[in-house]
Amino acid sequence: MVVDQEEHKFGDMDLAVTFCLLRPKSRGTVTLKSSDPLDDPLIDPKFLSHPDDMKDMIKGVKKK
Question: Quick check: 63 pLDDT over 90?
Answer without folding.
Answer: no
